[in-house]
Amino acid sequence: MVLELLVPLLFLGVCIYAMAGRRDVYSLMVTGAEQGLRTVLSILPSLVVLLALIHMLRTSGAIDRMTAFLTPLCQRLGIPPETVPLVVIRPISGSAGLAVGSEIIAAHGPDSEVGRIAAIMLGSTETTFYTISVYFGAAKIKKTRHTVAAALIADLVGFWMAGITARLLF
């Protein structure tokens, strides 16, 4: 009951606070909406390119080739071969990563070692390219410098530690 009223009460509270400070609530909301639309328009090209890239990678079979290429390295790191498609797609797309993770969990079971590792991977890694394109696009940053490399290393550590964590805890 309280959660259903949270957003309306929050909205009402902001309006009362603004009116108490003798501010024009409507014009402030319109200004905020304009700024939000500008932000959406500034990041939209990056998102369109990213979505097209994901579709091209999946359709061309490049994801399958990257998975085959990375499987030996992942096995050495203790990452199960069944989760390698998740390792490949997760940094690119959250929704595609979630779909791959769901397929892995459906195939192996949620209580299997592979299913647990996939679930930990989904929770401990980031959609690196999506996040960088959104945040850097919104801030109008053109050069990412070392951001992509550092973020991908963090993802790799997350994938690696998912395997270790699942084995230690379960």
Assign the structural class, choosing from mainly alpha, mainly beta, alpha/beta, alpha+beta, or little secondary structure: mainly alpha
Average pLDDT over all residues: 89
**Domains, number:** 1
- Measured on Cα atoms, how large is the radius of gyration? 21 Å
Shape: extended
| Strands, total number | 0
The low-confidence runs, each spanning 5 or more residues with pLDDT under 50, are none
Report the β-strand fraction as a percent range.
Answer: under 5%
Compute the separation of the termini in Å.
37 Å
Largest sheet: none
Helix content: over 70%
Order of SSEs, N→C? Answer: HHHHHHHH
How many helices? 8
What do you see in this structure?
This protein has 170 residues and is mainly alpha-helical. The chain has one domain. 81% of the residues lie in helices and 0% in strands. Helix 5 packs antiparallel against helix 6. The two termini are 37 Å apart. 19% of the residues are buried. The model has no long low-confidence stretch (mean pLDDT 89).
Question: What attributes characterize this protein structure?
Answer:
single chain; 170 residues; mainly alpha; extended
How do you describe this structure in short?
The chain has 170 residues and is mostly helical. It has helices at residues 2-20, 25-60, 62-76, 84-89, 94-108, 113-124, 128-138, 147-169.
Helices and strands, with pairings:
Blueprint: H1 2-20, H2 25-60, H3 62-76, H4 84-89, H5 94-108, H6 113-124, H7 128-138, H8 147-169
Helix pairs in contact: 2-7, 5-6, 6-8
